[in-house]
Q: What sequence folds into this?
């Protein structure tokens, strides 16, 4: 029981990290960035490449090295997100939504198969594997490394929340999300703020990618596809565009999946998650913490 | 949607793609030769004639198989064009309806020993139900939600087909009876069915319902204000698209005599979308040409397997940035001046 809860929370913290990027981008330009899951995949591969270049890492040094790689990767995927926005999305911001969605699909496709062409179709084994001391917490088996990863995720989320709610940048972001034109009139550089939002969201996805690589030990070019879908589900559950809601949605989806897998069997896990998504869209499309949004004309 | 591997690509594969006359040409006057060719009402018949005559040029089993696959792909693209092109709803799991059709006919014909034609009513019922189940909750919401829910739906269908016993699990179903004797007659049957499907889609697009679809695509709120029941109209587009996909699935099952989950990945959905976008959303001629290009190009570029999908992705972005109306855009008669 408590094992299920822990597993759910652990996976849920990954979902939450990826979902945040989805949610932020959606909040600010109302675009479902289909390529977001692929930035997570990119993060995993960047981390893989950096760790490979660094050579063998001793078990004792694994964690500090991993944290360093995490920061580096966040920078790289963040920049990738900025480039993506500049190249594929910016020029279409005034275009019909369908064009924007199609470019997003194209970007996702290009990233996936670009990585496949570059790194090969076979899964790669991550050079650092976190496996360590096991603790018993309320009857659940918890490894120290899992705790660390969750802690990192929580720190990133708290940091993001502070940034959005307390800083000047964050205020500008919220202003642009509310009304881009009025924000521009108030002297906010809307393009720059959107770029920064992409940077933040993509950096978080990259961090999740490295963490997933280190935890599961295997990465491949399609790993972002499913997590992108799950992260969207998490964002919808919590209320897309709403940051605390998205975090809650991620954890909740992790828990739901954990229990769903227990009852229905592992092979139905993904079906269960999408079933939840469709149910939520039917019953409460604004999510748990989302407000009712009217579509702009 | 690829034929059995091996062998050199047939020469006339390109000849079938020929009806794409210099589509990328821009800046020429409205009555340039290219545009006169493109607007010629005989263009569709010429395309059909090319399809009918192709086996006389090369009737090797490989060529026939590739051409049959291409024809089925055209039908898929015509169906998706109804949803994306006419109505402006982005369906990213379109291949799911293809899978539903293929599996329904496959399961019924192998388990119950029915001839494939007899499974058609069941295929229709099942695809319509599938369309309603996905469309009903999502079509009331923003269009982006439909996109991602259909993406999830595509995965659900594939995972379900992999997990169930009745669908043969990961290895799928074998020994599905064909519709006709021999590949040549099946090719002609496919071309016939696809031609009817394409013409049907075009006629639907020009009907009262088709006008409502385009109205919804251009401005949903204005359409609603003018008394168009947008929810019903969108649902109609979605369900009609589902039927087209399901029937194409029956052809697919008959063509390969086997179906397995590997044929219904997101990649396939994206390729159909690629065909529609490249050809020109809402333009039935453009979509047919786009489908022929997208389905035959991989046969010609077998060695560049990895890069061709990258190219498809980049091409999607470029088309949207540079020429969002596609290679062969639609020119509706009632277009505003």
A:
């Amino acid at each position: 029981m408590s094992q299920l809860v822990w597993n759910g929370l652990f996976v849920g913290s990954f979902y939450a990290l990826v979902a945040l990027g989805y949610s932020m981008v959606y909040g600010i330009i109302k675009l479902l960035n289909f390529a977001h899951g692929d930035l997570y995949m990119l993060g995993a591969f960047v981390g893989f490449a950096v760790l490979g270049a660094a050579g063998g890492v001793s078990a004792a040094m694994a964690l500090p090295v991993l944290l360093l790689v995490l920061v580096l990767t966040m920078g790289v995927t963040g920049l990738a997100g900025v480039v993506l926005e500049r190249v594929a999305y910016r020029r279409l911001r005034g275009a019909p939504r369908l064009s924007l969605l199609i470019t997003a699909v194209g970007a996702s496709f290009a990233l996936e198969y670009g990585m496949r062409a570059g790194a090969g179709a076979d899964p790669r084994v991550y050079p650092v594997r976190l496996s360590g001391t096991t603790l018993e917490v309320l009857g659940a088996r918890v490894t120290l490394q899992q705790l660390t990863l969750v802690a990192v995720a929580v720190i990133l989320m708290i940091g993001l929340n502070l940034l959005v709610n307390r800083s000047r940048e964050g205020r500008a972001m919220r202003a642009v999300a509310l009304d881009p034109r009025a924000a521009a009139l108030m002297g906010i550089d809307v393009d720059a703020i959107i770029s920064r939002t992409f940077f933040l969201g993509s950096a978080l996805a990259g961090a999740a990618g490295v963490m997933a690589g280190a935890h599961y030990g295997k990465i491949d070019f399609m790993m972002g596809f499913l997590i992108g879908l799950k992260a969207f589900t998490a964002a919808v559950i919590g209320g897309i565009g709403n940051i605390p809601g998205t975090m809650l949605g991620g954890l909740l989806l992790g828990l739901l999946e954990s229990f769903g897998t227990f009852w229905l069997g592992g092979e139905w896990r993904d079906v269960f998650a999408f079933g939840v998504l469709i149910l939520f869209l039917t019953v409460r499309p604004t999510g748990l913490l989302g407000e009712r949004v009217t579509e702009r004309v | 949607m690829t034929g059995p591997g091996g062998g050199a690509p047939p020469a006339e594969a390109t000849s079938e793609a020929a009806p794409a006359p210099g589509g990328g040409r821009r800046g020429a006057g409205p009555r340039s030769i290219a545009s006169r060719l493109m607007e010629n009402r005989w263009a569709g018949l010429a395309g059909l004639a090319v399809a009918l005559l192709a086996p006389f040029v090369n009737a090797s089993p490989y060529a026939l198989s590739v051409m049959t696959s291409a024809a089925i792909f055209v039908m898929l693209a015509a169906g998706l064009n109804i949803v994306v092109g006419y109505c402006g709803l982005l369906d990213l799991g379109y291949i799911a309806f293809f899978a539903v059709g293929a599996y329904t006919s496959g399961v019924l014909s192998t388990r119950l020993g029915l001839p494939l034609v007899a499974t058609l009513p069941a295929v229709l019922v099942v695809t319509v139900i599938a369309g309603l189940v996905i469309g009903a909750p999502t079509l009331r919401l923003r269009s982006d939600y439909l996109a991602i829910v259909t993406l999830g739906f595509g995965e659900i269908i594939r995972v379900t087909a992999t997990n169930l016993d009745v669908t043969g699990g990961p290895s799928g179903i074998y020994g599905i009876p064909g519709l006709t004797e021999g590949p040549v007659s099946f090719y002609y049957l496919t071309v016939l069915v696809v031609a009817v499907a394409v013409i049907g889609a075009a006629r639907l697009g020009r009907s009262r319902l088709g006008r409502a679809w385009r109205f919804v695509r251009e401005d949903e709120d204005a359409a609603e204000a003018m008394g168009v029941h947008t929810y019903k109209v969108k649902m109609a587009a979605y369900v009609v698209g589902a039927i087209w996909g399901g029937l194409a699935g029956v052809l697919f099952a008959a063509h390969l005599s086997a179906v397995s989950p590997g044929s219904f990945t997101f990649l396939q959905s994206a390729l159909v979308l690629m065909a529609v976008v490249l050809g020109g959303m809402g333009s039935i001629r453009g979509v047919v040409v786009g489908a022929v290009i997208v389905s035959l190009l991989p046969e010609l570029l077998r060695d560049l397997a990895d890069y061709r999908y990258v190219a498809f992705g980049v091409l999607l972005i470029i088309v949207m940035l540079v020429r969002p109306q596609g290679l062969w855009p639609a020119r509706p008669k009632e277009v505003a001046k």
